[in-house]
Amino acid sequence: MITVILHNIIVCRQKQIDDYLDDVQRQNYTIWRVRRVPIYPTIEVSFRRKTPKKHTPKRRLPKLYQRSLARYLQIPRILEEQTFVVEKIGELNQYQPFSGDIPQSPSEMSLKLEGPYLTTFPYMHLGRFQSVQSVVQVDYCSSPLLTDSWQYYQEVDSFTGLFQDMIALNSFAHWDTVEAEIREKGFHPKGFTVVEFIKWEMLRHSTGITSYTDAQRIFQNYDPEKLKGAFEKPSHIPAPYHASHYYKWLTPAHFRTFFQKLVEDCIDLKIIIPRIAIADGLIFRTWAGNFTLDRWMKPTDPGASITVHNKKMLGKCYNAIIFYAWCGDRWLPVDLYTITGSANENSLFQPLVEKFLDASPHKWTVLLYDTGACSAENREYLKNVGIISGITARSNIKKSVVLDLGNRKFCFADDIPDGMSLEQYKRLLNHRSQIEAGFSGFTTFHHMKQMNTMGRDAAEIHVLKYLILQLLHAIAAYKVNRPDLLMMYSAFSTLN
Predict the structure, then answer these.
(1) Cβ neighbours of residue 2 under 8 Å, at least 6 residues apart?
(2) Which of 151, 252, 270, 462 is the most buried (most CB within 10 A)?
(3) pTM
(4) In this predicted model, what pLDDT tens digit does every residue of 344-397 receive, in sequence order?
């Protein structure tokens, strides 16, 4: 008689085996890692092992027993289509073999479910994302400007793209609408259209130039012939006073609308798959001094504040809470909110997440955040809105059950949803730190860690330009069939 009992689920199956009747003995084998759908591969793999798993006596199954077991294991294969016969006897963890007769054919199988038993694996494909789809030249690169570059993109792996190609592969029609809007309010361009000025700003940040004076001096050394594909008048270079004039009329709403349009374009192209969101704060300095006062004896840039992060004095800063969509081998921004540098993220977590969910038309399943927002109220809020909480825990918490995941990482036991294993939840939490890779280009390559202006609106525009540049890179990399350039911050930044 062979009986299969799944741990914590009352599934009892027994069958008399014809060729194994004389020897009466009992052998118990524990299968620690159970794949719940389907169950038969787990049972087969466990019994096929020449030596049992760790912490169990090393012994082999008799050959006759193996043959009998192989015949018996055909039953779960049949039962996979009809599920299992489930019966609960007594209290939890008190089981009794199912005493009913086993049907002789699949058509006679019956289903009996009592209690909240898990019959599916709802999070099996939660962390799986399809790769970026391939395109051909006729899709996006049929223009004369991109025809020659296409061959380089496909045959030369070290070719990381040109800035002119990124401009040609993305639409900037939004800024024509913005110019028509601000012209009605009294705006007069000083030699540049708004589209032209935005493209020069993208070139300045792509090359990591921080000040407008340095940008004017460096751009004068460029060959205007190489910039014809990106600018209407490549020999006409903006001066610092142009930036002062244009930013008096351009608002964060103009940049945010353009950013959201790029996000929707990435979702349509399946570069971004909205499912797992990662959020974290990006701290950057304002141009104001830490303790300087204006002529009215008031602090300069009152929207910023003295910030101390990880016991390190950072000065007068802003903090941008940025939401990224994690999609396996790529993660791209989808939203942001700017707050003062010294604000408590724990207290602002719920209103910021609520704004994010209200503004997003898509369904999000998981939200990953760092330990700074690990309060019980924040985690309960995520559960109430139907989102899996991926917030790490502190090791010294006493009021909740905390699990040690290794490498000084902890999680709350009640945050693990029913149907998700601890290993899968651990892998999910490991993705949270990858948002730091999305922030690395902000400091290391684009040199945007400190603003060259002041004010909350200027701070939001400052971060939006960085996120827009990331999405422009992603769309351009997709259209030239080079997904390896999608997360490369140095891509599409050269002119030669």
Answers:
(1) 14, 15, 17, 68, 69, 72
(2) 462
(3) 0.76
(4) 888 999 999 999 999 999 999 999 999 988 899 999 999 999 999 999 998 888
The 10s digit of each residue's pLDDT in 155-209 is 998 999 999 999 999 999 999 999 999 999 999 998 889 999 999 999 999 999 9
Q: pLDDT tens digits for 291-317?
A: 888 888 888 889 999 999 888 899 999
Beta carbons within 8 Å of 282's beta carbon, 6+ residues apart: 319, 320, 321, 322, 439, 442, 463
Distance CA 118, CA 9 (A): 8
Beta bridge partners of 276: 326, 366
* Contact between 360 and 387 (Cβ < 8 Å): no
If we measure between CA atoms, which residue out of 28, 47, 31, 42 comes closest to residue 121?
A: 42
Residue carrying structure tokens 């690169």:
141
**Nearest-angstrom CA–CA distance, 476 and 140:** 10
Dist CA 82 CA 86 (whole Å): 12
Tokens matching residue 251? 């608002």
Give one DSSP letter per residue of 389-448, joined into a string.
Answer: EEE-B-TT--SS-EEEEETTEEEEGGGSPTT--HHHHHHHHHGGGGHHHHHHHHHHTS--
